[in-house]
UniProtKB/TrEMBL annotation, chain A:
Top-level taxon: Bacteria
Location in or out of the cell: Periplasm
Pfam families according to UniProt: SBP_bac_1
Keyword Mitochondrion belongs to the record: no
Upper classification of the organism: Bacteria, Pseudomonadati, Pseudomonadota, Alphaproteobacteria, Hyphomicrobiales
Name listed for the protein in its UniProt record: Extracellular solute-binding protein
Keywords: Periplasm, Signal, Transport
From TrEMBL, chain B:
Keyword Disulfide bond appears in the UniProt entry: no
Gene3D superfamilies referenced in this protein's UniProt entry, alphabetically: MetI-like (1.10.3720.10)
Lineage, opening ranks: Bacteria, Pseudomonadati, Pseudomonadota, Alphaproteobacteria, Hyphomicrobiales
Compartment(s): Cell membrane
This protein's name: Sugar ABC transporter permease
């Protein structure tokens, strides 16, 4: 008996040690806490919901801090500039990559992506998302995780009643919108953001691109008062005056979405992330009459589909061990299995080709083929990803709004923006 | 010991001064660290071309930021809007607030209940107030805005969406929210008035109007000064309610200095320009406060012979 005691003890010790050894190996990041600064988009609550799964798999706790766009930009920039390491992971808007790359705020992921290409299955990720949601001048400042497609949402019933088919060109969109407008019935053919600031600027830049305009030239210098841009702003002004709800000149995303969802508007271009909401009776009065199509471009132009969304970036100041864990989190989140779950939970943030043909996802989101078309043929260039973007966007927001409310002439307004924008370079 | 001996050798006057200085030192340090320091730093930053996003470009520009601001039409527009907004809001709030304070002066149960209810708007945060009014006044589906536009009582773009009514509407929202505070300060002033003077005026056969102009108003001057300065300072810095309603639009009609400063500082991270705007605001407020001091002193001298 006395001889067996140590053996039993050893066995017990081994029994205790083995699981803990396995535990330590399976949870390589135990004890690490990652702080994630997230934009308050549809994906944010899903990120927070999935975080415990990552902890269960790797041991790293991911704390998701959800905030609005302005706060996110201010807080994270302050964190980067002050080297305070407040956040390890940051959701990065498509247009921030220039500033992030110029200042080296976030880790350049190029080599890590190359190293782990097989594990990530990079071929399954849309190249346009990889390039635009974090790519800048040969660097990869963030990894795409939430691709949005600019799509056309329209009302089947209103188009059918007017014997119209959904517009294939911008010219058709304009004429149809005017035809479908009847203020007496409180029905309008078109709606977009007109409000001063990012809302008005971004929507016009999208339509401007579809009408053949561009904010910067091939060398990345501003050409804001080009003939094409002035012409497109003229058309946009007409569209607002003749076909949009009167309050649209003061709409931001919220007003625009509400006016479509409550049934007053026939046509609206929007980010695909909001599309699931149109089919939800709790949020929408157009559940049975809405349809999603690819956005039109001007006659004779190749399609100019807009792509946007968010990448996940790693703070360059974070400790190497945390950066490693953060990279593991990004790979985990964007892996086919987890990313599918991410979307089934309602993130509205697509990334992989395989998602577009996935039966479960298609059953829930019938408009996926439209997103696939947009991702295959679109680009994120209508909003230039240059460090001067925030100022240019603000100048454009003010100018477009002034034109829409009749306080400025399109040519004069864009001339002024061009003069101010040139000073930023 | 040696310090004590040294101290004991100093004349009494010097020791007394030292003692008082030591007593005041903590407060002085506090004011220097919390008040003067940041302002000085703000003034220093405003002399540089200093962007957080382009730290390498930082260089001294002297008064260049100020010159650029005053040459910029959008800054001049924001300055004008800020002055019009503060002037209109504070003047109307003062007139209405004084009226309310006089109505609530008598200490009845009814007045106390009224006062409590009146203070409700003050307790709502300005962002919420802005969002509520934005929803109500929205011309296409807002509860009030729809009918105003429908009946032709507002521009089809709505009160907040039309260039000629947007600033006035924001003034009205400010009045709705802050008049009760004005009334409260003035009411406190009224309650502190010496009862014997008022009774003497009544006994002397003065009319209500005479009592108001010759007794109540002159005695109320310190409270009026406080109310005006507090509200002007607040109104001059208006931000939240504009940010969530018009965002400075339509066509810059509601752009204010604070909107501009926040945009330059927290969106573009142009610390030089943002500091220059902030300092201009401080200067404006200092001028307005001095003007109030002068006016109130003059009125005090005229009315009370002090």
């Amino acid at each position: 008996m006395t001889k067996r005691k140590p053996a039993v003890g050893l066995l017990a010790l081994t029994a205790l040690l083995v699981p803990s050894g396995v535990f330590a190996q399976a949870k390589p990041y135990a004890g690490i806490t990652l702080a994630l600064a997230s934009q308050n988009d549809q994906f944010a609550p899903v990120l927070a919901k999935l975080a415990p799964q990552f902890e269960a798999a790797t041991g790293a706790i991911v704390k998701v801090d959800i905030m609005d766009y302005g706060t996110l930009l201010t807080k994270t920039t302050a964190d980067f500039v002050g080297h305070t390491k407040g956040y390890d992971l940051v959701t990065m808007d498509i247009v921030w990559s220039g500033a992030f790359a110029e200042n080296g705020y976030t880790v350049d992921l190029t080599n890590w992506i190359k190293r782990d290409a097989a594990e990530i299955d990079t071929g399954d990720i849309y190249p346009v998302l990889m390039q635009s949601l974090g790519g800048f001048a040969g660097k990869q400042m963030a990894f795409p995780f939430a691709g949005y497609a600019n799509v056309l949402a329209y009302r089947k019933d209103l188009y059918a009643a007017a014997s119209l088919t959904p517009p294939k060109t911008m010219e058709e969109l304009v004429t149809d919108a005017v035809k479908l407008t009847d203020p007496a019935k409180h029905t309008f053919g078109f709606v977009a953001n007109g409000k001063t600031g990012p809302a008005g600027a971004q929507d016009w830049m999208q339509y401007n691109s579809q009408m053949g305009g561009s904010i910067v030239d091939a060398a990345g210098k501003p050409v804001i008062n080009s003939a094409a841009n002035v012409e497109s702003l003229n058309v946009y002004k007409e569209l607002f005056a003749k076909a949009a709800p009167p309050g649209a000149a003061d709409y931001d995303w919220d007003g625009r979405e509400q006016s479509f969802r409550n049934g007053t508007v026939a046509t609206m271009e929007t980010w695909s992330v909001g599309a699931p909401g149109y089919y939800d009776p709790k949020q929408s009065k157009v559940v049975d009459t809405v349809a999603i199509e690819a956005a039109p471009s001007a006659k004779g132009l190749p399609p100019r589909y807009g792509v946007g969304g968010w990448g996940m970036a790693i703070n360059a100041d974070s400790d190497p061990k945390k950066q490693e864990a953060a990279w593991a989190f990004i790979k985990w989140l964007t892996s086919p299995e987890i990313h599918k779950q991410f979307n089934l939970e309602g993130a509205g943030s697509f990334l992989r080709r395989s998602e577009m043909t996935d039966k479960d996802l298609l059953a829930k989101f019938p408009f996926l083929p439209v997103i696939a078309t947009t991702f295959e043929n679109g680009n994120g260039d209508y909003r230039p990803r240059i460090p001067q973007y925030p100022e240019i966007q603000d100048l454009l927001g003010t100018a477009v709004n002034a034109v829409l409310v009749g306080s400025a002439d399109p040519k004069a307004a864009l001339d002024e923006v061009q003069a101010k924008a040139e000073k930023l370079f | 010991m040696s310090t004590l001996r040294l101290a004991s050798r100093l004349p009494f006057e010097t020791r007394r001064k030292l003692f008082l200085l030591t007593l005041g030192a903590p407060a002085l340090v506090y004011v220097l660290a919390i008040g003067v320091g940041p302002v000085a730093q703000g003034v220093w930053y405003s002399l540089f071309d200093y962007s957080l996003i382009h730290p390498a470009r930082r260089h001294f520009v002297g008064l260049g930021n100020y010159a650029a601001l005053f040459a910029d039409a959008s800054f001049r527009n924001a300055l004008l809007n800020t002055i019009v907004f503060s002037g209109a809001a504070v003047a109307l709030e003062f007139a209405t607030g004084l009226g309310l304070a006089l109505l609530l002066w008598r200490d009845s149960r009814f007045n106390q209940i009224c006062l409590a209810l009146l203070l409700v708007p003050v307790t709502v945060t300005p962002i919420a107030v802005g969002l509520i009014f934005k929803g109500l006044l929205e011309p296409d589906f807002g509860m009030i805005g729809y009918w105003l536009a429908h009946w032709g009582w507002s521009d089809p773009r709505g009160l907040l969406g039309a260039t000629h009514t947007s600033l006035a509407t924001l003034v009205l929202i400010d009045i709705w929210e802050w008049t009760p505070l004005m009334a409260l300060i003035l009411l406190a002033g009224l309650k502190a008035l010496p009862v014997d003077v008022l009774e003497a005026a009544t006994a002397d056969g003065s009319t209500l109007l005479q009592r108001f102009w010759m007794v109540i108003l002159p005695l109320l001057l310190p409270a009026i000064f406080l109310a005006l300065v507090l509200r002007t300072m607040d109104a001059f810095r208006v931000f939240d309610s504009i940010y969530v309603t018009t965002g400075g639009g339509p066509a810059g009609a509601t752009d204010t200095l604070m909107m501009l400063a926040v945009k330059r500082g927290l969106q573009f991270f142009d610390i030089g320009a943002a500091s220059a705007i902030g300092n201009t605001m401080i200067l404006c407020l200092a001028l307005i406060a001095s003007l109030f001091v002068l006016l109130i002193r003059r009125a005090d001298r005229l009315a009370n012979g002090r």
